[in-house]
Amino acid sequence: QRMPDRQTCADLAAAFQAAVVDCLVDRTAIALGQYRERWAPAAPHLVVAGGVAANRAIRDALEQLAEREGAQLVVPPPRWCTDNAAMVAWAGVERARRGLVDPLAAPVRARWPLDETRAGTIGGGRKGPKA
After folding, report:
1. d(Cα 110, Cα 128) in Å, to the nearest integer?
2. What is the spatial distance between Cα 94 and Cα 98, in angstroms, rounded to a whole number?
3. Which of 33, 37, 87, 113 could serve as 49's disulfide partner, Cβ 3.0–4.6 Å?
C-alpha cells in the first residue's frame, strides 16, 4: 500500500486540527454559559494552560470566543505550556503575585475537589471494585 503524499498528509492534519478546535470552542462556549448561569453573570476569566495552550490555532479560536463572550482570556506564555509541571508552576506564580498564598500547614489531598460546596460524585476519586 502506498503512503499518501506530503500535501495529503498536511491536509489531513489541518482537517483534524480544525475539528479539534471546533470541538474545544463549542464545549468552552457551553461551559462559559453554564458558569454565567450558575455563578457569575459578569465577565469571567477563561484560563487556558498546558499543552492545549501551546497550539496557536486553539489559542486564536479561544481568544475570539472570549472576545465574543466578554470574557478575559488568560494564557501563559507558550514556553510555559509544554507540560503539566510548568503549568502548575505558572499558576503558583500568578497566585503568589496576587498574595494568594496558603500556610505550609495546609493538608495534603491527592484529589482536591474544584468546588467543595457540591456533593461528591459517585465513585469520585476512588478506584477499585467498591467505587
Report:
1. 16
2. 7
3. 87
